[in-house]
Amino acid sequence: MAAGVTRKKLIEVSIPLEAINAASAREKSIRHGHPSTLHLWWARRPLAACRAVLFSQLVDDPSAWPDRFPTEEAQDAERRRLHDVIRRMVEWPDSKPADRARFDDAIEAARFEIARSVAWSLGEEPPAKGNGKAILDYLQAKAPPVYDPFSGGGSIPLEAQRLGLRGYGSDLNPVAVLIGKALVEIPPKFVGRPPVNPKGQAELQRGGQWNGKGAQGLAEDVRYYGQWMRDEAEKRIGHLYPKAKLPDGSEATVIAWLWARTVRSPDPAAHGAMVPLVSSFMLSTKEGKKAWVEPIIDAKAPEGWRFEVKTGKLSKTEEEAKKKGTKTARGNFACLLSGVGISEDYNRAQGKAKRLGVRLMAVVAEGNRGRIYLTPTIDDEHIAASAQQQWEPEGDLYEKALGFRVPAYGLTRWADLFTPRQLIALTTFADLVSDAREKVLADARVAGLKEEKTPLHQGGNGATAYADAVATYLAFAVDKATDRNTTLCAWESKMDRMRNTFGRQALSMVWDYAETNPLSGAGGDIAGTAFAVFEVLSKLDNAGIGAIANIDAAKNSFPIRPIVISSDPPYYDNIGYADLSDFFYVWLRHSVNQIWPDLFRRLATPKAEELVATPYRHGGKADAEAFFMQGMSDALTAMRKAATDSEPLAIYYAFKQSELSEEGITSAGWASFLQAVIGSGLLVDGTWPLRTELANRMRGQGSNALASSIVLVCRKRSADASVITRADFMRALKRELPEAIDDIRKAGVGPVDMQQSVIGPGMGVFSRHAKVLEDDDSSMSVKTALALINRVWEEIDQALDTNFDAETQVALAWYASYGFDARSSGDMIVLTTAKNTSDKSLFASGVFKDMKGKVALTPREELPKGWSPATDKALTVWECVQHTARTLNAEDGGGEAAARLVSDMGSKAADARALAYRLYEIASQKGWSAEALVYNELAQEWPKLEELAPTAGTRRAETKAQAELF
Hints:
The protein is an alpha+beta fold. It is built from 29 helices and 27 strands.
């Protein structure tokens, strides 16, 4: 076939969705060394998903090469092989060298598959499999570059690099741009270089040669100078962080001070006393280590009360009472002295008037066997009060910003989020970044780095640029420390540890907060945060070229083109990135504004241009929506113009939770977004639901089980696209959807994800036409098209019922009405008559059981062990499904045993798979969650069982033959 022909890509036909989603879910629990831990960014796409989507955008579907894969069987086999490549490469490696080698091999295999598709499309053959350098060089020279114009945390360009591709990105937000540069752009500049710090240089002189991989030398310097910053900080501010005196007279390092906010009691009987606002008095809820704060009414104490730390045993009732603190409801408390209620409105008014105070509740120290909780002393409070900061971050919190709760309580400036001692510590760290940079520069010169004065932001890669790079990562360490050094950090009594500020994408009020000791080696310690940055850098292995720019997506002229577009744009009003990121921007501006002058020239991040529908910035909800849709349309149009013709675009869409629970796939937001995509000149021919929750977590039925985001697969719509009628559209859906649905099921997409997956081929029919006309000649809306696609899908599924044997049709109708419940025999007779079968046949087959006057479907747990389709003389599709479902999870079964059943089903295997999907739909609609899970798992496992079936059948035949010999 001639070069230049547009060929279907794997993502347009099938991908191993369940494997991708499972790896994405597991990725959320990986912390040490994962790229997402370099710097906080909100709502990142899992790297596993980005990697799989990019691979599937670039690799041809086997159907694109009918001369190489001439039969449907050959194409299915090749798809399964490519799915295996994806399954292997989405699994993030653990810390063991063997697993890292496994991952590297998987990535190498993925690069070869991409190179093969690129080569074949050019009429060439790829470099030899196993020749990693030649494959990488080929991809860098001939594969199209990848670009994400909403690059955010940098996941997509990073994964493009990992796959050997050139990875580019851009973002309006300067914090996001710097994160992207730190992941994608900076490490390749310094690949293979040894560390320049004196300790590293001394070791090199003893050992002779640097054998580090990637940017490990840079990583070592970040660790070294991070420790230097910590030691230098202790010299400057260590007096503010004294050790705690233990009851036995010894000393221990303080981990944290736990403070309670206070307010003047509104009860006159309290005589104006400041009373505590405590959400919980429990310090540790671990068994055998319970600790709590006991508030003591003491006339001699300040304000008539004091705190005392207690340890020991508590009854369940006592513990539950202490967990409530003085809180009665959200924002509402009771006066410790009189019990009179203190309302949320009162607390807000007092906060805005700057009348909230604080009182130290407890001191947490590091003991030999864990945390030690101590009653605070007057000296503890006095030392904290003695801290007088010389600098504080500029800027106000926008009161109406998405997720900003604290301005309502008087915390209206960024500086208000910190205690004076925290401000001193963080300012010291930020100031030390520039001091560390000077040390790096001097050490780099001594180490022999070339003397080039071009800075990093201008593309330099000499000693000056290297010092800039180390300082950038040290500034990230300061940001990570900042996240754990605010008055919005709560103490987690279940874990005996502090929670960081951004547990979610919001700034919520914390009434009793933890102030960490940033020199203690615990959370928020600058040496520890620098080590976390080191862990990421040491494991980065950026193979390809990469760059991240500061560009507004709606105005992006894409200087690099043509490109493969893979992008995760912001959705509507889910997250206010600009407002949230100012938390870090104000500190980065202080620490690296000289290193990155263009990024930090403003006082705050740009807000007006941000593509988020914020009513308070755009004159109301309607104007905000219009701004978002116009900007998104402009961005999508620019993407279409810059994209290659040979690869589809992939665009991620994030549902709001309210959309999922209230409207599902026909939600207004989803329909509007699709309309913007189609209006920009793109057609949608694939939709893949992404899940990042744990694999078997189904929240319920219907729309609540929908995935939280979708990848839209798009192509450029033809300029001469035709106009069709509603009737034409319906005929095309009924003609094309059955095959598309079958391909999706073959890929192992579970029933729970079918509703969202079927949208893709359905919208492909709708969006490849210029318009679809309604009966009154008006243009059909996307919302209407979605509803019709859903209806046709249901009709196709129901039409499949007639393909089943009569016994299965009766069982299916019975299940839809009664499940496995027993009913009168007369109810069965009605069904058997309609389906032209008999009750005797149903009993003989084992589908139903005769209960003498009543009948019921035979429960799976009562099905006979040792059943085989090969020996069943009255085989039904119903039996195939129920026996396979039982065997898959039985102690005497498992995957191989279930695969043997599939092997023996012959032509009924395809019908059995289809029935599993139908049974899921029925169980889901009925709210039978346990049943739905059974069929969802079975359908997802079915492709694996089919793969195992030939070998499982062969092994059984061999076993039988050996037995006959004896």
